[in-house]
Recover the amino acids of this structure.
């Protein structure tokens, strides 16, 4: 988006109605230039109403992600200092890693598409243009490395809550890194860490959320998208502005809990959202795979699963499948 469009948008976001002349004076440009900027904002998906003798009013923000929208959101954030937005990138995760030394405070990277998006175990993460949210959030805690086990528990709750509140859908947590709706995966996240001397310096959390239906999703029985779950009759764009605002609020809240509170403070809520308890699952750890039923999670964040011989397994990290 051009600098001028960004400035016009900023002015419109602050006021109810604003005349073209006022905007022109404030920005030191002609009224025609204002009119052109408004026209191009409309083309980008913003709904700008114009009323004779009153001026322009921003009625609805764009359903598309862009730098202006994201920057204005991060301005209200008590945690994230900045946002980097790219229309296209190899991977937001890679870009985030590359910026870690330059940006001292927590920050966010968002992309319109990823050409080399990757998931856990280096699997490909299909990231077609404008079909999903592709985001990496960088946190800079100063805590011991072993605390990272709990990070996923707090973050999974943040993502599930944001989806529920924004789209009114029942989002369940599939330990350790997935969010499901109606038995299908809608979101996965990936947690990577930079540490030194057993202390965490940065956590890079990559979140991939399927927003709209894609070919890949129809091929997979185990995947879904927000659009599919909302079962919209007419093609309607999702309100990304509200969703991202909510996601940032929930990430901030749960990150704060993670830093300051034990897992027990959210354990009950987390368990109520978990979709794995009491179900026979295939559990793949580094060196072995076995079938067992998850029955509980400890205050330290270990999953307890009982196999058919009655033996209880304490699991720190694994891939689990229904
Ligand atoms: C998984 O379920 O395996 C985790 C998927 C994580 C995908 C996200 S999309 C944004 C960020 N950039 C990447 O390349 N991966 C993560």
């Amino acid at each position: 988006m051009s600098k001028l469009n960004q400035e016009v948008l900023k002015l419109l976001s602050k006021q109810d109605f604003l005349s073209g002349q006022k905007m022109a004076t404030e920005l030191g440009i002609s009224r025609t230039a204002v009119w052109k900027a408004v026209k191009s904002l409309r083309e980008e998906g913003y709904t700008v109403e114009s009323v004779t003798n009153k001026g322009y009013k921003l009625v609805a923000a764009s359903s598309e992600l862009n730098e202006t929208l994201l920057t204005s959101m991060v301005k209200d954030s008590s945690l994230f200092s900045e946002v980097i937005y790219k229309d296209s990138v190899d991977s937001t995760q890679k870009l985030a890693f590359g910026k870690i030394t330059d940006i001292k405070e927590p920050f966010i990277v968002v992309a319109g598409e990823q050409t080399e998006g990757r998931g856990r175990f280096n699997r490909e993460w299909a990231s077609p243009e404008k079909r999903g949210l592709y985001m990496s959030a960088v946190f800079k805690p100063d805590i011991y490395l072993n605390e990272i086990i709990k990070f996923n528990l707090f973050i999974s709750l943040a993502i599930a809550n944001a989806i529920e509140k924004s789209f009114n859908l029942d989002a369940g947590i599939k330990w350790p890194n997935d969010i499901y709706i109606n038995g299908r995966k809608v979101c996965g996240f990936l947690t990577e860490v930079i540490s030194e001397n057993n202390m965490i310096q940065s956590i890079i959390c990559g979140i991939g959320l399927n927003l709209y239906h894609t070919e890949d999703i129809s091929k997979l029985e185990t995947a879904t998208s927000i659009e599919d779950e909302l079962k919209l009759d007419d093609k309607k764009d999702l309100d990304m502005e509200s969703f991202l605002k909510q996601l940032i609020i929930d990430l901030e809240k749960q990150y704060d809990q993670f830093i300051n509170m034990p897992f027990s403070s959210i354990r009950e809520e987390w368990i109520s959202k978990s979709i794995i308890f009491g179900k026979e699952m295939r559990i793949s750890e580094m060196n072995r795979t076995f079938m067992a039923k998850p029955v509980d999670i400890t205050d330290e964040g270990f999953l307890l699963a009982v196999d058919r011989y009655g033996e209880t397994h304490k699991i720190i990290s694994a891939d689990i499948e229904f």
Remarks:
- Residues 137 and 300 are 24 Å apart (CA to CA).
